[in-house]
Amino acid sequence: SWTTGNVIDEQVALIREQVGTKRAICGLSGGVDSAVAAALVQRAIGDQLTCVYVDHGLMRKDETEQVEKDFVAATGVQLKVVDAQERFLGALAGVTDPEEKRKIIGREFIRVFEQAQAEIIAEASGDQPVEFLVQGTLYPDVVESGGGTGTANIKSHHNVGGLPEDLEFQLVEPLRKLFKDEVRMVGQELGLPEEIVQRQPFPGPGLGIRIVGEVTKERLDLLREADAIAREELTAAGLDREIWQCPVVLLADVRSVGVQGDGRTYGHPIVLRPVSSEDAMTADWTRMPYDVLARISTRITNEVKDVNRVVLDVTSKPPGTIEWE
Ligand code: XMP
């Protein structure tokens, strides 16, 4: 019968058999799937695994610390954190087009990740070679992509250096038979903190696609504050399960007139986008309690500099996507 204990025992045995005494690398995104996959492989092969986390500076408040401290504390995993904030901000300077932002973030991410891989491989060269790449592929991903081949052909770029021309990694995908709720149960059983296991979806490009307008450090800091307030209040109101996710968006290129304290303000609006959904393919805006909305609005306008208005997005998907960019 299916139990999380059985799944863990079975996968640990399979991973040990597959990897042997070689080494593996796993990219952590901050999301549930990569965290659980890494924890499972760590359980199986311990220090033969190294995780890589790219901090692009587009994460929400405390998210990087969560990976750095809580995840490592719970698993004892070896973690390489790459601080690439300046690199990403530099690449995003002056860019306002949503697709362009996504392309730049994706491109920089791969570059930084490959560089980190090359460093880990170089460091391990006298040791056992790094031959395995851990991925948090779930059952729905396998079905959607038509089965998968089991081998990733990751080509090194000449400008990255260190990697052999056509290095082939064997994939380790311990979650291939699982659905999301099962992955969460396995993560819980492995002792991962609740904040990681129950995490709502968050896009890879992070807050970079939640700033309408150019992405700057100042705007990111401002949005991080507003987002942290919204998340805190939604959690306090017990709405984390009912709401699929609630993007908080900064309209950086829009200003409106307000009055705060004794004076006129001319600040930016923050958009709240709470949605209910089964799979993110379609979604409806969440009819959430007015008193919670009121608390979020009051706190954001009081506590976040340069924000003088909070608006609610009441659009379903379609026609609106969940994210604004
Ligand atoms: P949209 O905006 O297309 O979002 O309705 C659907 C779901 O996908 C998430 N999303 C992303 N996730 N990388 C990700 O890993 C991305 O580039 C990305 N873009 C959107 C979004 O948060 C929602 O859950």
Automatic annotation (TrEMBL):
<keyword id="KW-0436">Ligase</keyword>
<comment type="pathway">
    <text>Purine metabolism; GMP biosynthesis; GMP from XMP (L-Gln route): step 1/1.</text>
</comment>
<feature type="domain" description="GMPS ATP-PPase">
    <location>
        <begin position="2"/>
        <end position="199"/>
    </location>
</feature>
<keyword id="KW-0315">Glutamine amidotransferase</keyword>
<comment type="function">
    <text>Catalyzes the synthesis of GMP from XMP.</text>
</comment>
<keyword id="KW-0658">Purine biosynthesis</keyword>
<feature type="binding site">
    <location>
        <begin position="29"/>
        <end position="35"/>
    </location>
    <ligand>
        <name>ATP</name>
    </ligand>
</feature>
<keyword id="KW-0332">GMP biosynthesis</keyword>
<dbReference type="GO" id="GO:0003922">
    <property type="term" value="F:GMP synthase (glutamine-hydrolyzing) activity"/>
</dbReference>
<comment type="subunit">
    <text>Homodimer.</text>
</comment>
<protein>
    <recommendedName>
        <fullName>GMP synthase [glutamine-hydrolyzing]</fullName>
        <ecNumber>6.3.5.2</ecNumber>
    </recommendedName>
</protein>
<keyword id="KW-0067">ATP-binding</keyword>
<keyword id="KW-0547">Nucleotide-binding</keyword>
